[in-house]
Amino acid sequence: MTSQAKDAPAARGDLFDPACPTRRLLDRIGTKWTSMAVKVLAEAAPGEVRFAELLRRMPGVSQKMLSVTLRSLVRDGLVARRVEPSVPPGVHYRLTGLGLSLETVLAAVRDWAEEHMAEVDRANERHTGQEAGPEDRPGSATGV
């Protein structure tokens, strides 16, 4: 590989291409558990957080789901994992630089959601209160 090829910027993805890896990445980073884990780790940055502390600070997440989420974040280079050689082993997590850059974006999305949640709830209530028109009924020409 030439140094020019090594230094070239990575090609951007195309979200509308079904084969684009951007879709898979958005699936992974767009979950509530990812958002929560990144937030907890960002609050501790540049420090580390133990697995049990993450579990405690993320109400509703199961041990398995947290493990799957963290494994994905580590694989994607967003989180670093350190195992302390003790009995039982202590497992610590921290955001990488890439993970910290994701926190900025996720924080903006969380802020937007908190600011607009009442408005979205009202829209849901209006929609639920309406009778389904023919286009909304299953099996119709335009309904799903």
TrEMBL record:
Residues 20-121 form the HTH hxlR-type domain. Keywords: DNA-binding, Transcription, Transcription regulation. SUPFAM superfamilies: Winged helix' DNA-binding domain. Gene3D superfamilies: Winged helix-like DNA-binding domain superfamily/Winged helix DNA-binding domain (1.10.10.10). Residues 122-138 have a biased composition (Basic and acidic residues). It holds the Pfam family HxlR. Residues 122-144 are annotated as: Disordered. It comes from the Bacteria. InterPro entries: HTH_HxlR, WH-like_DNA-bd_sf, WH_DNA-bd_sf. PANTHER family: HTH-TYPE TRANSCRIPTIONAL REGULATOR YODB (PTHR33204:SF37), TRANSCRIPTIONAL REGULATOR, MARR FAMILY (PTHR33204). This is Helix-turn-helix domain-containing protein.
